[in-house]
Design goal:
Blueprint lengths: L6 H10 L7 E3 L25 H7 L6 E5 L5 H7 L4 E6 L14 H8 L5 E5 L2 H7 L4 E6 L5 H12 L2 E7 L5 H14 L3 E4 L5 E4 L1
Parallel strand pairs: 1-7, 2-3, 2-5, 3-4, 5-6
Antiparallel strand pairs: 6-8, 7-8
Length: about 200
């Protein structure tokens, strides 16, 4: 639940009061363009898919490889696959306390996305995956359990292994926005925030 107390989040908030403020620049897309591929499933990501082309062009993102942490039903994965040569989606596919789904949907999602040849799904916890992967990506999307600690751990690795890292739910979960703030502080990357569709943090 959103209101569950998280010590690491509040510790970061209070420590941040004594540190220089991290600027957050509003992300205003210059154009909105639907991707060539879409998936007919309900998703809180609805709307974000239409700014991907603008995002890629504005920050000159390499479109060879993309990594996604948090696939669930595959809406964002398919949208990303419209722009990147190869998309790797990592998820436990068993949901968490912040998702509607609580059952194993790996087979269901794999079948749904099987027609997209450039998508590769990996059933794994992000913590196990980042121990094994040492590659670099044009873009990494982080949309996992919305705690400060998990978003920070996954996001910091992602920011160090990608040209651009995006984080869903910066507007609906303060823990996510705080984690992105601290990752921006730690890496020196610039923090943009798109405030629609529950919020999308962008680090470049």
């Amino acid at each position: 639940m959103k209101g569950k107390f998280e010590y690491a989040y509040w510790q970061s908030v209070f420590k941040g009061l004594t540190k220089p403020k991290v600027p957050v620049t509003p992300y205003i897309p210059q154009r909105r363009q639907p991707p060539s591929r879409s998936l007919e499933v309900v998703s809180a990501w609805e709307g974000i898919q239409n700014i991907l082309a603008d995002l890629i062009q504005r920050f000159d993102i390499d479109t060879n490889r993309c990594l996604e942490f948090g696939v669930e039903y595959g809406f964002s994965t398919v949208a990303l696959s419209s722009f990147f040569n190869a998309v790797t989606g990592v998820d436990t596919f068993q949901g968490d306390r912040h998702t509607t789904n609580k059952s194993d949907i790996y087979s269901e999602t794999s079948e749904r996305l099987s027609c997209f040849a450039n998508i590769n799904l990996i059933c794994s916890d992000y913590r196990d995956f980042i121990q094994q992967d040492h590659g670099s990506y044009g873009l990494i999307h982080v949309d996992i359990i919305h705690t400060f600690a998990d978003t920070f751990a996954c996001g910091l690795w992602s920011a160090n292994h990608s040209q651009c890292t995006i984080f869903h739910d910066t507007e609906s979960f303060p823990q996510v926005k705080q984690a992105v703030t601290e990752i921006a502080r730690a890496t020196g990357k610039k923090f943009y925030n798109f405030n629609e569709s529950s919020g999308l943090g962008i680090l470049v």
